[in-house]
Design goal:
By secondary structure, this protein is mainly alpha-helical. It contains 16 helices and 9 strands. Helix 2 packs across helix 3.
Length: 519
């Protein structure tokens, strides 16, 4: 028994052939909106959110769309979050090395890659981030004998209702209130689950709605303040015996002077100009700006999980590079979570029916896995230094096959020309020690002599043993002298040269340092 993404049992007839009808027919009036953000206040916002809690998504979906259109900060933050996933490469992995599994994975890859606008479809599915859910209708094509996907049609969130159901229903011409249940394997329903709860309350815009409201109040007051800031207050004075007509004429003249900088009054009246206080005006401006920045920062935290990659340094515009790096890593966690959720939706709701309808093994066939390649670029230079320490200094063996796989460098194939890199001659321990001793200005004569003894012990043991045997066997000094000439036969001349070279080096350096101390 099979179930769809909503836990509904799928009928046997729906498993043989996909539904090729168009359930959500796009209408011209779909682009119309009631503009619920016009005159928005706390009471209206609360009523919109309560209606969504009851399953009526129309006003909330339209409000969230307007918020993303009107607020440049919100639009840029959501665009950053979406594009971080949309531009990533992807792959489809077979479940095993079985030829049928590989063929199935390749068929799914070609189907997705062949869609007219796969990047646009991914962006449509990511619309679940602000609104909590995103719905797309799969347009199946079975004319060639295989069930293929011709397109994925995005359905506006306001055409989804949860009025009397815990599952989404699509509003149509026939059912404009209750909606219709979508057939199995007909829609792709991607949900953004940042927290537990019902889908109607899952969108990030639910968190940002109140900050959006307060920010718009602040901007409205700020604009009114900017209009009158610096403009002198005009006070009209009239005689005690002035009638109503004289007062109205004076008021009209004052207003006219404010907009047209011109007006007429009688000689019996007077207009006084009082300059605005600059210090108070600047303080008021800072209050509005601080409130707007605070609301932007709260929305950035809700969308990206941080603020430093969105605004440099908050209120004063002074950022911290180190904190920005840390906050950038927090955003990488969000990218991974978005990729994981979207990969799961594509695998279960697009690839699974593709395999079920087309694989000769039927719906019991293993489903290939879709995944985004979201890992950040590796620092191969730093990794190579680690391997250099492991292999060179610690002497741990590492296979060429492992290095080939780790650094993505293919092993040379038969008949290919292998690049031979000349190896550097290793530096002896004595040379390293000499350099260290010179740098530290120590008593090099004694230090180098000791190190020379360690360096030459293994090389000189064989020679000393032969000389000792010669002395023990000879009957006179003359015999020792004559036989020393033939003693070097069979010995490695390179080793003898190295020992003599190091001895001369010690003598040379010791003499130089002794002479330097004398002066």
């Amino acid at each position: 028994m099979l179930y769809d993404q909503f836990g509904r049992e799928i009928r046997a007839g729906d498993l043989k052939r996909p539904d090729t009808r168009e359930i959500s027919v796009q209408q011209v009036r779909d682009r119309w909106s009631t503009y619920p953000s016009s005159g928005l206040n706390p009471r209206r916002l609360a009523n919109i959110l309560k209606a969504a809690d009851n399953g009526d998504m129309l006003r909330q979906a339209e409000l969230f769309e307007e918020m993303e259109e009107k607020d440049a900060h919100l639009a840029s933050q959501f665009q950053t979050r979406k594009l971080a996933v949309q531009g990533l490469p992807w792959e489809i992995l077979p479940t095993s090395k079985d030829p049928l599994d590989k063929k199935s994975a390749e068929f799914c890859r070609q189907t997705l890659a062949g869609l007219p606008d796969l990047d646009g479809h991914i962006l449509d599915m990511l619309d679940a981030l602000p609104k909590g859910y995103s719905v797309m209708e799969i347009m199946w094509d079975a004319s060639s004998g295989l069930a293929s996907i011709s397109s994925l049609n995005w359905i506006h969130p306001k055409k989804i209702t949860f009025w009397d159901s815990i599952h989404p229903r699509i509003l149509t011409e026939e059912e404009p209130v209750r909606g219709v249940d979508p057939p199995g394997h007909k829609i792709v329903y991607h949900r953004y689950k940042a927290r537990s709860g019902h889908d109607t309350r899952a969108g990030i815009m639910r968190v940002c709605a109140w900050m959006y409201l307060f920010k718009n109040f602040a901007i409205k007051d700020w604009a009114a303040f900017a209009e009158i800031f610096g403009m002198p207050i005009r006070i009209g004075k009239y005689e005690p015996g002035a009638n109503r007509a004289d007062k109205d004429a004076l008021l009209a003249a004052i207003r006219s002077i404010g907009t047209d900088a011109a007006g007429i009054i009688s000689k019996s009246t007077e207009i006084e100009f009082v300059e605005a206080q600059k210090s108070g005006g600047t303080s008021g401006q800072n209050i509005y700006e601080s409130l707007v920045r605070f609301c932007d920062a709260q929305m950035s935290k809700a969308i990206l999980g941080q603020v430093l990659t969105a605004d440099a340094g908050g209120e004063k515009g002074q950022g911290s590079y180190a904190l920005g790096r840390v906050h950038g890593e927090v955003r990488q966690d969000l990218v991974e979570a978005d990729c994981s959720a979207l990969s799961r939706t594509i695998t279960e709701q697009i690839i699974r029916p593709l395999v079920g309808f087309n694989d000769p093994r039927g719906w019991s066939a293993p489903v290939p896995q879709f995944r985004f390649l979201y890992d950040p670029p590796e620092d191969f230079k730093a990794i190579a230094e680690i391997y250099k320490i492991i292999c060179g200094d610690l002497g741990k063996p590492v296979s060429e096959e492992h290095l080939s796989e780790r650094f993505k460098i293919p092993m040379p194939k038969k008949g290919e020309t292998v690049l031979n890199v000349p190896k550097q001659k290793p530096v002896s321990n004595l040379a390293k020690f000499m350099a260290k001793a010179v740098a530290s200005r120590s008593d090099v004569s004694d230090l180098i002599s000791d190190e020379l003894q360690k360096e030459t012990d293994s090389k000189s043991d064989a020679m000393i043993d032969k000389v000792r045997d010669l002395v023990n066997e000879a009957n006179s000094l003359e015999e020792v002298r004559d036989r020393l000439i033939t003693l070097t036969e069979g010995m490695d001349p390179q080793s003898i040269g190295e020992i003599m070279g190091m001895a001369l080096t010690v003598a040379n350096l010791s003499g130089r340092f002794d002479a330097g101390r004398a002066h």
